[in-house]
């Protein structure tokens, strides 16, 4: 399967300026647009891993470390393909990545990279491996405690991300699931002591590219692929509701959405086939690129807060919340709802029709309908609502909730 080279999303300070709307049809001279896409390389197919040594040579990297989870180690043949491609460049493997990228593990990876004198990082596996590797390179390069590096509120209550200036180790991703984390500049790790998500943002920490290897794509259980694909679906739907009017991002998000709708059901009929998984990985890449420009949104922020308190993956929780967050946003996104209806193939452009179609698709994807169905307790909702308000994803939401709104949304979904 040949995959062309791609580019990744814009830097945070280079987001699109919303269009000047002259009338209800959005007339005038058109959108004021700035779409900066940093270099990102994509390779796919049976021989895709052959690109890794060439890319490392291009960067003059000779000491690569693999970062993965224990589940990947069980797939010796697939992981062996990565080892073979790296050859003498491989100087170590950290295989203790854990779900939700807990801070203690990120610190262990940082120390491992320092001990091995790594000059490149290969993240192998799902979103936790990608985020853990990226966060570890930030901690390693900056040499400060994460409390000094993460997004936080300033004296005026605004969320700010400190400027992180140190050069970062180059990274490559060999994924096992369709995670939107491939090309992101941000990484969020979980402090198990406080339950907080600590967000790090640094454009220099973006991966150089992704290698879509069919053998590695087959290592993940279908349930993990499905959960990751639901995050792809949700981020595409939310990106298409963004205040940021960027037709280039919209094109990526729209095609990502169509791709998930086409290929996720085929994962059920062909669970051991690489083709649906690789298409979903391409959708993840497009959704990740597009949402970089459009920004995150409400279901994403809420799922970040309530997901770790559930008995299922964040992607499932995020998808479950979509109908509720679309309903909350409706008054602010009338023009975007029409576009979303057209992308979904609906002749009826009313919000109820769009929400109904999203509910229908979630049923096709076997997504539970209530938070209580995925192990979230009612007392969890209050703390989750508080944490969600500090999530950077809300910066791209068309309508930003207060604490009461956030708790009401979660309660309605419970």
Query: Low-confidence stretches at least 5 residues in length (pLDDT < 50)?
Result: 1-27
Number of domains: 2
Query: Could you say what the CATH topology of the largest domain is called?
Result: Rossmann fold
Strand order of the largest sheet: 1-2-11-8-5-3-4
The gross shape turns out to be globular
Q: Quick one: how many beta strands? A: 11
Largest sheet: 7 strands, mixed
Q: Could you give the order of the helices and strands?
A: EEHEHHEHEHHEEEEEEHHHHHHHHHH
What's the architecture of the largest domain in CATH terms?
A: 3-Layer(aba) Sandwich
Distance between the termini: 42 Å
Distinctive features:
414 residues; alpha/beta; Rossmann fold; Dehydroquinate synthase-like, alpha domain; 2 domains; 7-stranded mixed sheet
What does this protein look like?
Helix 8 (222-239) packs parallel to helix 10 (274-294) and helix 15 (378-388) packs across helix 16 (403-413). This protein has 414 residues and is α/β, with parallel strands linked by helices. The protein is globular. The protein has helices at 51-58, 70-73, 76-86, 103-115, 127-142, 146-149, 214-217, 222-239, 247-269, 274-294, 298-306, 314-329, 334-343, 351-364, 378-388, 403-413, and strands at 6-7, 39-44, 64-67, 90-94, 120-125, 152-153, 159-160, 171-175, 186-190, 197-201, 209-212. The strands form three sheets. Strands 1-2-11-8-5-3-4 form a seven-stranded mixed sheet, with helices on both faces. It has a two-stranded antiparallel sheet with strand order 6-7. The N and C termini lie far apart (42 Å). It folds into two domains: 6-16 and 29-215, 3-Layer(aba) Sandwich (Rossmann fold); 220-413, Up-down Bundle (Dehydroquinate synthase-like, alpha domain), CATH 1.20.1090.10. The chain is built from 16 helices and eleven strands.
